[in-house]
């Protein structure tokens, strides 16, 4: 007896298209009951979702935890077990680009402090994408090395003198 994948409760395969992502976002934002709009477009085989609207400050509050949660949820629903396909990028009016610049500046300032005082410095906990930005930003700086430590939401980076 073969199972029908459409009704099997553990079946997590979803069509990965801009239309499917848009429909999922429409349902999700409706359930959140927030005044948010979104736009979905496909560029270079990556699906990009931009969320904006009057409730955008709530989306970005607490270190953008809601935006990051939506990003994580979309990734789990549409890419589960499919690491070989390009991802889905969720943003809100270029927040990610501004956050990346902020993290690079933070990393450079922290590395200068570590080099000058010759003492390790731990940064606040970050999501994996943000930790990666910091690691890459400091990989080319002589005199420091980085290491991630901690578990789950408390995973952070410590910058050490080398």
Question: How does this model look, in words?
Answer:
The chain is of the alpha+beta class and 162 residues long. The chain contains four helices and six strands. A three-stranded mixed beta sheet has the order 1-2-3. A three-stranded antiparallel beta sheet has the order 4-6-5. A hairpin with a 2-residue loop joins strand 1 (37-43) and strand 2 (46-52).
Sheet having the most strands: 3 strands, mixed
Query: How would you state the average pLDDT, rounded?
Result: 88
Number of domains: 2
CATH topology of the largest domain: GMP Synthetase, Chain A, domain 3
> Count of DSSP E strands?
6
Keywords:
162 residues, alpha+beta, GMP Synthetase, Chain A, domain 3, Ribosomal Protein S8, Chain: A, domain 1, 2 domains, 3-stranded mixed sheet, 3-stranded antiparallel sheet, 4 helices, 6 strands, 20% strand, elongated, disordered N terminus
Provide a short characterization of the protein structure.
With 162 residues, the chain is an alpha+beta fold. The protein is built from four helices and six strands.
Summarize the helices and strands and which ones pair or pack.
Layout: H1 18-32, E1 37-43, E2 46-52, H2 56-79, E3 88-91, H3 95-117, E4 121-122, H4 128-139, E5 144-149, E6 156-161
Helix pairs in contact: 3-4
């Amino acid at each position: 007896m073969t199972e029908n994948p459409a009704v099997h409760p553990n079946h997590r395969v979803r069509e990965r298209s801009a239309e499917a992502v848009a429909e999922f976002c429409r349902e999700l934002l409706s359930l959140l009951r927030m005044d948010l709009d979104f736009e979905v477009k496909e560029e270079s085989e990556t699906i990009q979702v931009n969320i904006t609207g009057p409730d955008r400050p709530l989306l970005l509050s607490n270190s953008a935890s809601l935006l990051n949660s939506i990003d994580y949820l979309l990734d789990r629903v549409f890419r589960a077990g499919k690491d070989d396909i390009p991802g889905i990028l969720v943003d809100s009016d270029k927040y990610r680009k501004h956050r990346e610049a902020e993290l690079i500046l933070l990393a450079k300032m922290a590395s200068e402090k570590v080099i000058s005082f010759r003492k390790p410095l731990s940064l606040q906990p970050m999501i994996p994408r943000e930790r990666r930005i910091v690691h890459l930003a400091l990989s080319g700086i002589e005199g420091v090395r980085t290491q991630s430590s901690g578990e789950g939401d408390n995973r952070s980076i410590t910058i050490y003198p080398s």
